[in-house]
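Subject: sequence -> structure tokens, single chain

Hey, anyone have a minute? Need the predicted structure for the following. Not urgent.
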Amino acid sequence: MKKKTVFKCSNCDYISPGFFGKCPQCNEWNTLEEIEVSGSEKTATTVKRSKNIAKKLSTIEDRNAFRVKTSIEEFNRVMGGGIVRDSISILTAKPGAGKSTLLLQVANDLSSSGLKVLYASGEESEVQIKQRATRITDEISENIYVYSDTVLDNVLEEIDKIDPDFIILDSIQTFTLNELQSRAGTPTQVMECAHKMVEIAKDVERPRMVFLVGQMTKQDELAGVRALEHLVDAVLLIENEDNEELRSLLTTKNRYGSTGEMGFFLMTQQGLKSLDNPSEYFMTYREEGSELPGSALSVIREGTRPIILEIEALSSQSFLPYPSRIGECMRREHLNTLISILEQRANLKLIDKDIVVKTTGGIKLKEPASNLAVMMSIFSSRRDVAIDTSTVFIGDVGLTGELKSVPSLELRLKEASRMGFKRAFIPIVSNKFENIEGLKIYKCKTILDVIKYFNV
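Reply:
Had a minute. Here:
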């Protein structure tokens, strides 16, 4: 029998068809050894995929008709309205953020509607999965199957037997194919396993929904090569601060929805609870007349959704040569820029003040629409002037002190109206927004014009 020759790294089991002086995977020198592989060795299970044919673009049905919705509204939002039936997605997060918990909740929800689910785990036993399911669900559906193994060939055999509609692999870095000699987690194993699951999901006659759990590196990135992200249809990320109950689900890629869409959850003893109205979470409830200095409200946008956000600032006397500038929710350079504009364009002396800025809920300020609210919160704290809680500030502020327009301004104003706000300070724009019910709109040219309404 003719033998095939490959080169295997003695340090990390990387396999290459050619010789390298330095291993491309572990970067060790002179570790590749020539070995022979028999051509008659048993290969991994081959996925039987139906042959496709070319179709006219005009005759192809809209993907929205193939979406499967869950009862978890925030999850549906992030996915673009639901899970597409022949899609493959990957979910990643730090350890303990709730990846497995969220997918198990989605699995139980889908199975309760009659769909068959297979949860294959290479990290946990069936007993561990059952314990989590008992904790987070009131009743475990009969349509959920669990399988604990690290060999993908065995998982593929179970898929043929069970014929599930929804498949979860937790995590993709723990599975291996018998035809490959490298260890689990290597780029070759991960990519080949992912390719097998793509074939499973994209089968023309039997499309399936597939979710892969991906491990995260110390740099808070999806572990593995970038090609893995290109391969899948959607990449989801769960973000959370240490010891915080708030979880945000973010899409960094979505072929069937908006990239950058964000959903919010609260981690509880019963799993992740969907936060369907996050505006109530990101602002402090205060009765009219009980406002405190140092607080201002804005309307930010996460994905396609507008959210009311409270921004707090504290200005205090500094006794150091260089005052502190602490922005828990924004970059220090950005905060210093806004402070400089206030000093130069609004005649607000801050050179000897320590300034701290944060947001309720710890959400990060990523867009310029909140700049006006940040500056007004600093002004409110510095002048000890309370801003009433029925007012929102929407707009960017330039280095000249002029207010700049921001995207989706009308959408933000409608959200403010829906939440019961009475006043909104915005830049002077060509669009007319006088018809927004219950909201009085003040169009201002500069930051100084806005301050004049509150300067006492």
